[in-house]
Specification:
This protein is of the alpha+beta class. It has helices at 2-46, 65-75, 85-91, 120-130, 175-179, 191-198, 218-230, 243-256, 267-277, 281-294, 317-327, 355-372, 392-398; strands spanning 50-58, 98-105, 108-116, 135-139, 155-164, 205-214, 298-310, 337-339, 388-391, 413-414. Strands 1, 2, 3, 4, 5, 6, 7, 8, 9 and 10 form a ten-stranded mixed β-sheet that branches. Strand 2 and strand 3 (108-116) form a beta hairpin. Helix 2 (65-75) runs antiparallel to helix 4 and helix 6 (191-198) runs antiparallel to helix 11.
């Protein structure tokens, strides 16, 4: 009897040890996988050769943001249509991204695009096709004008990433709505932001970058489901229809066949049409707005904003002006920009203990993320980054060469365009 009990005990211990071994192997494998993928992706990113292109805005720019919308349509050409798993394992390959940037300081407001060098021709041709008078030149990265680490003994900063407050298929207020305000003198969607960036003095700087990565169609499918939900239609993966309704439709088509070409609608489609007819105006506007947004190409986007100044002159009034500049894109019933809680440099968002130390570390990480143009990645990151999908119309709203009527006194504009030399210009042999 004792031998049987001893055998059972040994078996149980063996199973327990085997369980611990399996758990150890699974956890160890997961840790190794994360380390391996992280190393591969970071290696891929570090191999990217970046260029900073300054976009010189013509002083006589009468084009609306609609032209910039077409530029973003062209820039969607960076999309890979899906990275294969083998490419991730072998190369660490991820979807490429661009950074569209606006920089304001005591010298004025300037526009840049920072991107992998292989996309330079695409960027230039996209701009020239819509803005023939614009000039683009490669320049040194302006972030190198400051120390690599901020805050430090001289400089302080405030910053945050802006993301959407609701699901990405809900739109923000776009340039089209600004242009509808005919009685206003200034209807450019960037007027408020340009004004805030034009009033900087001394060592003050406002940096704004929109990190954009071409998106697939998953967010659009969610939008379609939301429209169906609003219309009272149950979205099903397979539509089998309503048997009684189908029989009735068949008889109706049979009777009308000599006169009217037969039509056929399943019960779900008819239910959706009837539901849309009885939506109240508010619901109709929501469904239409979602439909308009998902009907255009989208980019996974993070809007990153920094205000930098010397410690002795740090002006918190500029923070309010900057925040107000982004509120003009918000709507009560659709979508709005909100700070990403993982990046907001506020003592209330860094935890309940060691607040000052954590806040200082977050500021340093956010400044580093701006300099590296770091988007949300499929690996662990020091900052908890979030992104949203903006379509080309929304991106053009927050980044475009401002129209000539924008009252920004220090907006750096191109007064004269370089010309090509005459064909018969004599040259020395």
């Amino acid at each position: 009897m004792s031998n049987v009990i001893s055998s059972l005990v040994n078996s149980v211990i063996g199973f327990i040890n085997l369980g611990f071994l399996l758990i150890f192997l699974i956890l160890g494998g997961a840790v190794f996988y994360d380390w391996f993928i992280h190393k591969k992706i970071r290696g891929y990113i570090n191999r990217i050769k970046w260029v900073t292109l300054q976009v010189h805005v013509p002083s006589a720019n009468f084009k609306s943001a609609k032209s910039m919308e077409q530029v973003f349509v062209s820039l969607h050409g960076t999309y890979s249509f899906g990275i294969k798993p083998i490419e991730v394992y072998k190369e660490g390959k991820i979807e490429d991204w661009l950074s569209c940037e606006m920089v304001g300081d005591g010298n004025g407001v300037r526009f840049y695009v920072t991107a992998p060098a292989k996309y330079r021709n695409l960027i230039e041709s996209s701009f020239f096709s819509q803005y023939p008078d614009v000039e683009i030149e490669q320049v040194e990265d302006y972030t190198k004008d400051l120390p690599e680490v901020i805050p430090n003994k001289n400089y302080d900063l405030f910053g945050q990433d802006y993301i959407l407050a609701r699901d990405s298929f809900y739109p923000i207020r776009t340039y089209r709505e600004f242009e509808e305000i005919k009685e206003e003198k200034s209807t450019d969607s960037l007027s408020t932001l340009m004004e805030a960036m034009s009033n900087l003095k001394g060592e003050e700087r406002i940096w704004v970058q929109a990190l954009i990565k071409a998106s697939g169609d998953d967010w659009k499918k969610k939008g379609e489901s939301e429209i169906a939900k609003i219309a009272g239609q149950a979205k099903k993966e397979e539509k089998h229809g309503d048997f009684v309704g189908n029989v009735f439709q068949f008889i109706k088509n049979l009777i009308a066949a000599p006169v009217v070409y037969p039509t056929w609608k399943d019960a779900a489609e008819k239910k959706a049409e009837q539901a849309m007819k009885f939506l109240n105006p508010y619901e109709q506007n929501i469904a239409k707005a979602i439909g308009n947004k998902i009907g255009k190409i989208g980019f996974e986007t993070i809007v990153r904003v920094l205000y930098i100044d010397k410690k002795e002159g740090f002006n918190k009034a500029n923070l309010s002006a900057l925040s107000g500049a982004f509120r003009v894109f918000n709507t009560q019933d659709l979508n709005a920009f909100r700070p990403g809680n993982g990046t907001l440099t506020s003592a209330t968002k860094v935890g309940k203990t060691f607040k000052q130390g954590r806040l200082l570390e977050r500021k340093k990480l956010l400044f580093e993320a701006y300099r590296r143009r770091e988007p949300k990645l499929p690996i662990s990151q020091k900052l908890k980054l979030q992104d949203s999908v903006l379509n080309v119309e929304e991106l053009a709203t927050i980044y475009h060469p401002p129209a000539s009527f924008v009252q920004a006194p220090r907006l750096t504009q191109l007064e004269a365009k370089k010309g090509t030399p005459p064909m018969n210009l004599p040259i020395e042999s």
